[in-house]
Amino acid sequence: MPIIRVLPVFLLLVVGAGLAIGYITAPGPWYAALAKPAFNPPNWVFAPVWTILYVLIAVAGARTWQRARHGMAMRLWWLQLVLNFAWSPAFFVLHQVGLALLIILLLAATITAFIAASWRSDRASALMFLPYAAWVFFAALLNGAILSLN
């Protein structure tokens, strides 16, 4: 199946669901009241960064689906998506900062494993996950700082 037929499905799934979860779990008064580290970005940064990352995640997913839909890289891709979508409800809805930190650390490990699993067979997909990995490692540091400050 050509990527042009698969990609819209992945874009709708990842970007659509990601933005919907972001909207439903938008930071509220609880988050505003938390002590945050000096390196905490302004709130307006998160939506554009995640939108770009979600597009990259979707493209890498579509490419991986085409190449080996039952392979290890695809299984890791699905796992990272579940962990990604679980973080916001854990943090912003349940207010479980420690649980959110565990989820994001598992997410970072899964992203790293996806990059390693894809590196030889689909370098482009692996490279698309590098900015995602960088952002998630930063977000994990931020999550850990918020946990320690509160």
TrEMBL record:
It comes from the Bacteria. The chain crosses the membrane at residues 44-64, 76-93, 99-117, 129-149. Keywords: Membrane, Transmembrane, Transmembrane helix. It is a multi-pass membrane protein. Signal peptide: none annotated. The keyword Ribosomal protein does not apply. Belongs to the TspO/BZRP family. This is TspO/MBR family protein.
